[in-house]
Design goal:
4 strands, 166 residues, alpha+beta, 6 helices, elongated, binds fe (ii) ion, two-stranded antiparallel sheet
């Protein structure tokens, strides 16, 4: 069984001698990271309405270029913080299922970051007066946004499941 000792530094799993070495989640830290990520939320709230329609996107193209660069940088920080403080390597837990889910979610960071990095590069190469290029870009952003939202929901569920497992 996974036990968390909550301190001002976050939650620390207590070793269980019968458990197996695997990946666990520092639920308190992971939650703090998510709660404090106002900048990320603000960026997504700015980008999403702009990319809902092609003409709106075309009218805000220079702004969109800056916002996608900002989102790329913010996500680099976001994923680094989560990986540095939110997940444990070699923690000792008994639930193989939660460990597998944690490993899968952590491994999604690299592909999500590659997607936003490519989008931030591509947006500056698109001619905003070429509807098909604009459409392609905003469709790719929408796919990225959905994948990122599913990832975030998965991590929130993982936090609750880990705390529940105590
Ligand atoms: Fe994450």
């Amino acid at each position: 069984m996974l036990r968390f000792e909550i301190s001002s530094q976050g939650a620390t799993p207590s070793p269980d001698k019968t458990g197996t070495r695997t990946l666990a989640v520092n639920a308190a830290f992971l939650k703090d990271i998510k709660d404090d990520n106002q900048d990320l939320k603000k960026l997504l709230d700015q980008i999403t309405p702009i990319t809902r329609h092609r003409q709106t996107a075309a009218n805000h193209w220079p702004e969109l270029i800056a916002l996608l660069s900002g989102l790329r940088d913010q996500l680099a920080l976001h994923f680094s913080l989560e990986e540095a403080y939110g997940y444990f390597d070699d923690a000792i837990i008994s639930s193989a299922e939660l460990s597998t889910t944690a490993e899968k979610l952590r491994s999604e960071h690299s592909s999500l970051f590659a997607s936003i990095r490519d989008l931030a590069d591509q947006v500056s190469e698109v001619c905003s007066d070429r509807p098909e290029q604009v459409n392609r870009l905003i469709k790719r952003f929408d796919q990225f946004r959905r994948a990122f939202e599913m990832h975030e929901e998965g991590e929130l569920k993982l936090i609750l499941d880990f705390l529940d497992d105590d």
